[in-house]
Here is the input.
Amino acid sequence: MNVDRLCLRRLASPFKCLAEMSTQSHAYSSAACTRLQWADTFTRELPGDTEVKESPFVNSKVDESKFRASREVRGALWSWALPEQQPNPQLISVSQEGASLVGLDAADFWKEPQAAAAAWSGSAAIEGSRPWAHNYGGHQFGVWAGQLGDGRAASLGEVLRNGQRWEIQLKGAGRTPYARFADGYAVRRSSIREYLAAEHLNALGVPTSRSLSLVFTDRTILRETPEKGAVVARMAPSWVRFGSFELPASRHDHDLTRKLADYVISRHFPGLSYAELLSRVVESTAHMVAHWQALGFCHGVMNTDNMSILGLTIDYGPFAFLDAYDAGFICNHSDPAGRYAFSEQPRVALWNLMRLAGPLARVMDGQPDPAPETVSTITAILNEFGSQFRNEYTRIMRLKFGLASARDDDLEVIIQPYLDLLQEAKTDYTFAMRTLSRVPGSVDAAVDSLAERSLACNAEAWKDKLRTYFTSVYIPRLGSSDAATQMNKVNPNFVLRNWVAQDIIDRAENGDAEWVDKALKLFTVHAFDDHAPSGMEGAEKYAGPVPEWGEGLQCSCSS
Here is the structure.
């Protein structure tokens, strides 16, 4: 089948197919689409797949299979992509904060919801968009996997807004040349999770990709069982990963590796040397993981192809927030050995950075075998990770504990002993951190409530130890009288635990899709509030005890 049969009609107008659907001028009319200021430097400045040299939106006579069939792509960092038309796309939610980043308004999506659903599911073309898919490799669970790439994510383009670059992707819109044996689609449960999680973590202060919109489709997708499909529009300043450097380096294509490094520097770290680029990535990755550990966030699949060159949390799969505090918690049931367990995340991040350092070392020297001086430089940079992680983690935890001042022994004397007590009793981590603000008012009440939210404490003995910790260790180091107020601004009350996400998914699949949009508001605007907002009274339970069926709930990589 040729692309023109499928696409020419819908490519004729700006976001323009929308003009076919409505004669009114709304957010997705041609005038409004001019607000998307496309600046696709990635595809203009970096080598692309020579198998198909033109976008289907430019040359509609290229056979569609060229954009769908899996193949090995060498000497290129990307391939043109063609999102598929989706059966009955339905707009479910739009992030106002995400939309504003690219100059759009969520309210305008809802003026023409069918048109918006068509555009942001890939069923309709957007003026100026020339979709492509990234080519990269990666180490998966510590093993080199070769070429991977964006098998079900198509980058619509890069948008410039207020000096910031945002690369918008559609995830779940169909196969690309990197799909391998997969179908290129995404199911509703995983799409709801990623859509909410990215905006939630941003609201919690964690470096992350962002979400723009969520669209359901009536496509039936086979996973463990048949499920319905969805498409997430997500954004990041760049979707370049550690694996983007690893793949060309593994093929000894050091010229391509250098071109990518030069591009990343020019567009995201202007003026840096290659060594300084690595140093910046080490620092941003250390800070990202420090935020994870402080929040009790477990990513679940820290493969090098899921590691952002910008130090952003990306590719939300089997993630989880801790329920009971357990440093060894494994959120991904595809990870029985616990490689990506909660406590292992800093170590794995450093291991991944070592994989990135190899390609960059060869770029620094311009030869396959780096000189001893280069190895020494890179070793010194990597050795900074430990202190950078520790310093950032301690800084964040001091805020969460409301400490009066920074002392060198805060981690050993204040922070870790509390975590040890939570580990011993399997105490709800989010609740335990939030409860710290109540300790000055009543130690006994705080101790009793923490015991109630613990799974395995020897009640009286553990409560005595906790009471002693609060009175003799913690309270003497507390800050000013308004410490409690400040602590409640950094210790969330509502977090997107796995059981909470499952409850939202169940409600959506049972016909209450509006709950997803309400949940977005809860986990962004109201995450630090004591109570759920008006209209979401049923969400109060999300800050309550974990139901028995939800404790330690794991997800898999299947999505």
In short: The chain is about 40% helix and 10% strand. The mean pLDDT is 91. The first strand starts at residue 78 and ends at 80. The radius of gyration is 24 Å.
